[in-house]
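Quick one: co-fold with manganese (II) ion.
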Amino acid sequence: MPTPSMEDYIEQIYILIEAKGYARVSDIAEALQVHPSSVTKMVQKLDKDDYLNYEKYRGLILTPKGKKIGKRLVYRHELLEQFLEIIGVDKENIYTDVEGIEHHLSWNSIDRIGDLVQYFEEEPKRIAELKESQQSN
Ligand SMILES: [Mn+2]
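Sure, here it is.
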């Protein structure tokens, strides 16, 4: 199992590769607001654990294992954003709150939150009802 910090890197590398086709150490450093030397260190660890292949001057690619986990981590982040939005959390808090909780929930909880989001989305009336009940609080 990747640590929370490893998860942040895999998630960000996955997003960069999806968006641009590649992920450079400098792009990862900028996205995660860390020093490039920390990125190099982590990327070497992720390589050793078989999440990616890193060659110093050729860049890096995710292994099938890294891709699979990256996809799940991005899904988890987006799901939690959707969840907080549905329950009425203010827009400006959503990203930071998701970054704070995403690593600390079991996949069991994530799946149940997924059910709940689906429950609301398949019937927009339910979201409206929730909003009404919040207004009376
Ligand atoms: Mn995230």
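If it helps, The mean pLDDT is 95.
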